[in-house]
Amino acid sequence: MSEKPWDGRFQESTDKAVEVFTSSIAVDSRLYRHDIEGSMAHCRMLAKQGIITNDEAEKMVAGLAKIKGDIESGHFAYSDSLEDIHMHIESALTQDIGETAKKLHTARSRNDQVALDIRMYLREVSRDVIALLKDIRTILVTLAEKHDGVVMAGYTHLQRAQPVLLSHHLMAYYEMFKRDEERFTDGLKRINVMPLGSAALAGTTYPIDRAYTAELLDFPKVSANSMDSVADRDFIIEFISASSICMMHLSRFSEELILWSSSEFAFVVISDAFTTGSSIMPQKKNPDIPELVRGKTGRVYGNLMSVLTLMKSLPMTYNRDMQEDKPPLFDTVDTLTACLDIYRRMLPNITFRERRLSETTETGFINATDLADYLASKGLPFRDAHEAVGRTVAYGLGNGKELQDMTVAELKGFSPLIEDDVFAFLETRNIIDRRISQGGTATANVREAVAQAKRDLGL
Amino acid sequence: MSEKPWDGRFQESTDKAVEVFTSSIAVDSRLYRHDIEGSMAHCRMLAKQGIITNDEAEKMVAGLAKIKGDIESGHFAYSDSLEDIHMHIESALTQDIGETAKKLHTARSRNDQVALDIRMYLREVSRDVIALLKDIRTILVTLAEKHDGVVMAGYTHLQRAQPVLLSHHLMAYYEMFKRDEERFTDGLKRINVMPLGSAALAGTTYPIDRAYTAELLDFPKVSANSMDSVADRDFIIEFISASSICMMHLSRFSEELILWSSSEFAFVVISDAFTTGSSIMPQKKNPDIPELVRGKTGRVYGNLMSVLTLMKSLPMTYNRDMQEDKPPLFDTVDTLTACLDIYRRMLPNITFRERRLSETTETGFINATDLADYLASKGLPFRDAHEAVGRTVAYGLGNGKELQDMTVAELKGFSPLIEDDVFAFLETRNIIDRRISQGGTATANVREAVAQAKRDLGL
Amino acid sequence: MSEKPWDGRFQESTDKAVEVFTSSIAVDSRLYRHDIEGSMAHCRMLAKQGIITNDEAEKMVAGLAKIKGDIESGHFAYSDSLEDIHMHIESALTQDIGETAKKLHTARSRNDQVALDIRMYLREVSRDVIALLKDIRTILVTLAEKHDGVVMAGYTHLQRAQPVLLSHHLMAYYEMFKRDEERFTDGLKRINVMPLGSAALAGTTYPIDRAYTAELLDFPKVSANSMDSVADRDFIIEFISASSICMMHLSRFSEELILWSSSEFAFVVISDAFTTGSSIMPQKKNPDIPELVRGKTGRVYGNLMSVLTLMKSLPMTYNRDMQEDKPPLFDTVDTLTACLDIYRRMLPNITFRERRLSETTETGFINATDLADYLASKGLPFRDAHEAVGRTVAYGLGNGKELQDMTVAELKGFSPLIEDDVFAFLETRNIIDRRISQGGTATANVREAVAQAKRDLGL
Amino acid sequence: MSEKPWDGRFQESTDKAVEVFTSSIAVDSRLYRHDIEGSMAHCRMLAKQGIITNDEAEKMVAGLAKIKGDIESGHFAYSDSLEDIHMHIESALTQDIGETAKKLHTARSRNDQVALDIRMYLREVSRDVIALLKDIRTILVTLAEKHDGVVMAGYTHLQRAQPVLLSHHLMAYYEMFKRDEERFTDGLKRINVMPLGSAALAGTTYPIDRAYTAELLDFPKVSANSMDSVADRDFIIEFISASSICMMHLSRFSEELILWSSSEFAFVVISDAFTTGSSIMPQKKNPDIPELVRGKTGRVYGNLMSVLTLMKSLPMTYNRDMQEDKPPLFDTVDTLTACLDIYRRMLPNITFRERRLSETTETGFINATDLADYLASKGLPFRDAHEAVGRTVAYGLGNGKELQDMTVAELKGFSPLIEDDVFAFLETRNIIDRRISQGGTATANVREAVAQAKRDLGL
């Protein structure tokens, strides 16, 4: 039975099963570095304010540095009886430097301490995620440039709809990840707020200088209400929500890579180094990475639901339930960063089968819209043009002929407006290059979009 | 059997059950105004670009205005066979002004049209929510001022922890709703982007001017990639996510109001006009509104999960699944705005029982931390002071005495450092007013927080 | 301002906005029939027990019957001020038959009344769902028989894995829906329990006969604890959970139908009557129904999360939050039954393109496992056989040759055990028919599975 | 770089980052025992069918037994390059017994193997959960007996509603956990089905005897369709769903224990051994266990959402996404069993403060319903009686008098039907004991419920 930081009023010692059940050390040991850095800043502030002496502060800072070294070199023992990372570090400090260590907890509580640790952790993680998203955007731009001019079918309802450039398709993901990045950046504004000094819930009686602690820890802002500071976790939910949206985007990209790896689509080949096989079926080469990323989407969604449920209906201020914010947060961070990282590695190892992509624009009446546009350009209202082309397609389906394979005479049967110039009009490249509306798939537009992206990325 | 806008290639007419199953008119009729305004702007842009004549544009705009009037006056018939609001309006326009109406759909598709409608709707709704949040923040500030100086127990783990000011407690919610407002404001940046002109997925061949349409519709930005524009709904998820967080905050406030309305807490009386009774138990007066708000939290969380699941793994670009984005979005908007609105009405109808609140600071050893601080201020390390006070509390529990009810002699038994000045030190008002750290509950701090809030709100 | 059933102790009338906010009549009017039937049984029991006279009971039952008629013929007015369906009916009864009506509420409360109504509704709905699932299973069996012997690629990781029978594939869904049916049947045990007589929460002082009420309403069981009876909604969560699993199965079937409708797979043609087109692209024929069903999956998942969140942490017994159980329940019922119904209609309107399906077994080295089995049957350990075939496949990929297109000499290069008999061994039909393990895809097995299914369905 | 079981067709070795990303060994090593037992049964069946020799089988079974021992004694090394527990065991077996080991994988695949392992694991876990629930039901019955006759306020809307027995309240939880148990038992029917022999997806060509394997492993049933067997995880979702409902029940119990531990309610004292304190506030004694259980509810809900999302829209049959079923399943199992176990330990360590509980029935007009019943028993229609009592309560509130504190004269002012006998009628014990309806709170009824529960539990 260990000594607890709150033994005084208790007559019985904690049941061993309770120690195990309530311990969070297996989870929150991850925060050791932020906890130590936060404590160092707290020490320095206390000394600057004359609440402790400079000597005491130096002793504690040195002791904390040593503990950090011990943890990082693996010379640090964890125990459920010490509950959490905060108690572990304080206990080690007491062993190392003696009584002085007890002053570390002056003018703070575990409630504001853990709020500080998570915020420090999460702003670091947010920046990592932003960097990963930037890498992926860079790779997408590189791929778009590399495959400049490659045509393929664009899909709606998983039906071939209209021809597009592969680079246009890739740049759609560029836009999604750009918004994801913005969301993480916006969230940072609410993460990057210094809560220390809120103490247990009501603030502290010591003449502390919270602005100074914030400055030492590079926080631009100090939290405004001590009760709110220890009670809320909305910034965690916001982070997991942005992560869920990002995973949603990754799940869509993954779905496409899985489809594209099938025999039926056969649009891409993911390199052997980024696929796996089957223990039974010797021919198999499976797109495991996109499958796993798609599957891990559920994990992050689940984490979001977990923290939302957790926080529902909790009265002010801190409640022990909130200890459960960390497992879903850490799992989200690990999952999202692993998925982004493996995507970053995999994307350059995908071969796009350009000829096959091009073939998809030659069948399935993918140029039907353009035949309607052709008729509309000759004065037919679009709705009527659509109807005429619809009948032409029905005829083509019945006779096994694509539009470009019909004769002018056949085509005239559906509209007398059709002339010889229709065939050039229906060529894939022309179809694409006519879509010059801002954001459209015309080659020039897509090249400009790529150029703009490179400017945005500082490339 | 109605005429469909895509009949041409089809040999069979749509099964009636399919019409009912696929129809969205019961849901998306809500978008009629945004659809019509979007169409008007589209017309004007088409005319400006010479794609249609000014006469045609005027005729269409007038026809659309008439339809808007018809809908608003209840003279408009809906039918499942016309699928959605877009087809209803176009069909009505064709009946009213004839063939010209068919030109309305030039250079656009339902894919970009519905994206436009939702974005117009959602930016309006976001602004409404922001206004409601501002109202609630204003009411909170008013309540904080009205109850200036009222003391109460602050809680952690639903245990009395340290005395705080009621206004400090109320201002914690002020901070939460302020962050909610920021989230909706940040989300608006991603909502307020003009997608029209993306057409079905690839852009359009017509020489449209998207920037002009954006200008007419007061959009600061035009979407950059046509595929992304019709394929993504991340801005909806972001809105429902911000709504979920806001409902989480409301659920916490509601939980407190429910607790506070109980016989056991008895902190507040919600006026008769804002409570209901029981058909069986004549004495009952139930806090139905906070209960319902707490319950509706699940509804918004569910909507979030619904759209996240919906969008998971959808390949590019538009898929019919995405029609299902609107029921959870609209339900979220209705639920959130109803909850904020009823809170806005109810809050001023709550009476805080100041004497009862004050009593909660007199029992439960709520001044124990301050006794520890007292000892610490006399040189005892905080951890030791904590231990001594813990034993004092154990003694008090056993003897039915609060700290302030013990004699100096009794207290000295736990630490010789204790002197007569301890009693003034332990008075609630002093305890509160010593918590002068930034964001703490000292009266002066809370008054400054209120003053700052009023400046922020322009009051 | 209406009269409330609880006006006595209230000094102020309910705020109009509160009436609207708390009213559930727009949602729970759906329960009118169950509410009336429950009330009739309650009347009859009260009379049998001598709590009211037979005359009073007859008068009330007749009055209730009339109200039922009025509601069903549309001659019944709803108003938010009457809160819910229970008050509407009681209020109408009072208008119709006068003072006697007030006795209807003897020995019951709205708390047990609404619990009764939902349980009556939900057992009816469960039986409907079970019937729909039986229909779909019947159709699957019919399709399996109709396509007896049709071969296709079986997939893992969306890669062609091994040949299977189309009917085997269809019967996999048969099994899933069979388990779904079992889950709804199991849930019924917990739904079909009679709660009336639990009153507000503590039971009633009247000498009621709950078993008799249960008998009249065809409940096999009476609830055992009055507090539990009015406080729990676990049977609703269980129903929505079973619905979520069923939607998950439907989403998988839908995903396959969408894939199979693509130009790339081209395995099926859904009839024109069960697809829709595009307002822009004349060639499009979209699998809207499976897409919408797939999308609606999120809706049911969201409803599950909604009720789970709702019920979390509610103290005993009834809380007003629980009014929010009905919107997600009703939406789940509507969504699930609509999806099952439209599937029931659509499935017979799907044409399987048998030749195309057959082709998928001829490429992609889908017979590679069987070559390994061939080698294993000649004594090579399976892992070694797998490795040899892996190299053969690599050779085939490099030289554009399927296994069956290689010469014996070429094949012998990878294993000297290969002889001429290999080609028969690798024929699709033989591959399939060798898989005679119980539950395997051999024609005889699948025919037996179909026969068993028909026996199970009583066909 | 390790050897993979599918190296044959691959030209490049797997990227190290891919090995780490796709490895599941850190998670699925938990299944080692089930994997080994399943493999032993498979061996024996293969030998019985003459597919391998008895010698080979014995060698493999002995080798597997040794590996099991090594794992359990900690002498087994794990590595990401061996992917999963199946490969680890097979690889160790090959090292131990040489070439023969390779025959273990005859007539099976990892797809059916992992399905077997999870089903074996989950039926074991289900039985553990059922046993834990039985323990908790036993404890509840014991507590109900121990506190026989203790009265307390029953609540609706967290308002005092009617007096009940504490044992009645406790038995409400008994009923909930009984239904939870039933759900796990029902789920077992669908878990306890033997999938081995389904092979990769299509069944196997070997003359296996699946019924024999099932017999060896004590499965009552063999799965019917090989594709379904490797493709579905509905039984996992059903388990997590039942777990979510059970956690919902625990969260309600926890909420009550937290409320009841507050100074305001003060209904219970949880022993020191099952609570913790604060590092800052020396007086604090926090109900950490119920708080953590309440918080962990979100975790299980999140896991449910995770697997539902995971499985949504996956085409047949096995997809790598499905590897992600295990983290949420295992976390659910760990969380649920830890929560049930700690409840089992904590419940006997709760002291109910009987006098305080009794006091709650003496204020708050909790006997108002009974005054209305009193009037109704004298012939007044209940709705009118309710109204009269409502006015009496309003009078009492204004004059600070409970009903039992008024004079007959005062009471007569609200209804002339009131006589002297009213006071006995309004006594708590009488109020409770009049509620003799089946399932009501009358002492005799509750004693009978407890007796019935003991019979059900075999006590």
Side by side, the strands of the main sheet of chain A go 1-2
Question: What do we call the CATH topology of the largest domain in chain A?
Answer: Fumarase C, Chain A, domain 2
Can you tell me the CATH superfamily of the largest domain in chain A?
A: Fumarase/aspartase (Central domain)
Oligomer: homotetramer
**Helix-strand pattern of chain A, N to C?**
HHHHHHEEHHHHEHHEHHHHHHH
| First and last CA, distance of chain A | 60 Å
The biggest sheet of chain A, with number of strands, parallel, antiparallel or mixed sense and barrel status, is: 2 strands, antiparallel
Radius of gyration of chain A: 30 Å
Class per helix and strand makeup of chain A: mainly alpha
Shape of chain A: elongated
CATH architecture of the largest domain in chain A: Up-down Bundle
What does this structure look like?
- The structure is a homotetramer of 459-residue chains.
- Chain A has helices at residues 16-22, 25-28, 32-48, 54-72, 85-97, 110-146, 166-191, 210-216, 226-231, 234-261, 288-311, 326-346, 354-359, 368-377, 382-399, 408-412, 422-425, 428-434, 443-457; strands at 151-156, 159-165, 268-270, 350-352.
- The first copy, chain A, is mainly alpha-helical.
- Chain A has three domains: 7-106, Fumarase C, Chain B, domain 1, CATH 1.10.275; 111-200 and 220-355, Fumarase C, Chain A, domain 2; 368-457, Ribonucleotide Reductase Protein R1, domain 1 (Orthogonal Bundle), CATH 1.10.40.30.
- In chain A, a hairpin with a 2-residue loop joins strand 1 (151-156) and strand 2.
- In chain A, helix 3 crosses helix 8 and helix 6 (110-146) packs parallel to helix 12.
- The model of chain A has no long low-confidence stretch (mean pLDDT 95).
- Chains A and B meet through strand 1, strand 2, helix 7, helix 9 and helix 10 of A and strand 1, strand 2, helix 7, helix 9 and helix 10 of B.
